[in-house]
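Worked example 2:
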Amino acid sequence: MKKLLLCISGLILMASCVSVKTYNEQITSLHSVEDLHKDVDKLYEQLKRHHPKLYQYTSKEDLDFKFDSLKRSIHTPMDSRAFYKALAPVVTNVRQGHVSVSSAAKRFVRKDRKKLLKQKFEFYDLDFEYLEGKLWVKANRGKDSLLTGSEVIAIDGEPAVELVETYKKRFASDGYNTTLHNRFVSKGFAVYYYKDKGFVDSLEVTFKTKDSLFSKVLKRIPKKEKKDKAIEDSLKKVKPKKLSREEKITKKRLARKRRKDNRKYGYLGKRKQYTRNFNFIGNDSSVAYMKIRTFSNGNYKKFYKESFAKMDSLQTQYFVLDLRENGGGRIAEIEKLYSYLTDKEYQFILESEVNSRTPFFKYLMSNTTPNSLKVVSGVLSPIIFAHNLLHTKKKAGKLYYKFGESKIRKPDPLNYKGKMYVLINGNSFSASSLISTHLKATKRATFVGEETGGAYNGTVAGIYKLYRLPTSRLRVRMGLMQIEAPQKQTPDGYGVKPDVEVLPTVKDRQLNRDPELNWILKDMGKL
């Protein structure tokens, strides 16, 4: 039996290596014009079949023309990465931020993956910001803190500004919004560079600090440097201190509290920060500040209950909700947060328009779904079908899926009644825009910053279908449900706009100033 298991393991490993090799050869080889045309048709067919609001912002005639023009422009063979560069800008004409195309990335066998996991790429330690037409290093999570605040002039000889402007054409905001582009390309610049260039071991980056130009080669380095062997040997001789019973109990209690806090605040290990932060500004409890980086992880219910209970008991006068750089997340979480911000009954979202009576099955049975999950989905298919059919109904010739958040809800007894401000910017997207729509429509808060990247009138998201194109192997992501609040604005296709527009400058960043928050504090008379 042992020998049989070893043989099976060996065969699986060999098959995996062959699969990786085959895949890499496919994405790097030149695809025929005919096959690339078929990929374009397949992508458009998937969008028409599954996207419930495909022609909301671009007419069918115009979108047909865009995809036909793409096919006519492909008259020579190209590899998958070149095809991605041609395809992604065309898909942005759907003008739906949740529709995107991913470049085909090189795969690695298990041995190489293990090796890469022990390394980090210094380039990925840099956080960028595109301000005043230039690319800046906003922060560096690596060792060289001197790079923070410097301008990026070129990467491997290519002007950084040209790269930024190219990448901005490969993703979309919702509708006709423009504020998302500079913000989103800043946040995802390293990702878009990887999609563009593929896997690299090093990059020569040219920086500018004041009037001084300098270059630095950013490499893949070990995550942890090995200690000197002599030091290691000496450490082995030192016996660990034996803890008393009380010390062991204290240690376990602290570890348990840390785990609970990590779940409650949503710990982000790579950045060593929390998703949710709550504190008071100043020397008293009159100004509460809540920063939410995403609505995607952690035990949010406990966090919101504790935060609003604290504000209620301390009779906090002002509340600042910071949704800048928040790309969205769970509907359930933003509905729970909104229950603490209103004193009236509300319907958080309308029933969601869909193109299928079984949207969850479409999501589960895509060609990118692992076979193991397909098997499980097949076994559970009667339950999935029954669930979907019970929640889906037809009205006026269209299909609608009913989420729990579309029911009439009551405000939480601890709902905050003081004066409220909301900080937003172009990277406030999806769920961030949805809760902002409610707060804006009910005039519950003063909005400060810039227009959200997500649309006021809703977005197509909820659950997603990930489809892999047969020849190029590019992956296309599309939302399957129209998620929208009952409130609407005219004209359609724009985000939630601030009551007071405040935009950061390069000087603000250099002086470590927060101009949006400072405006709010001045308005309160606290600055």
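Confidence is low (pLDDT under 50) at residues 1-16, 226-230. The longest helix spans residues 2-28.
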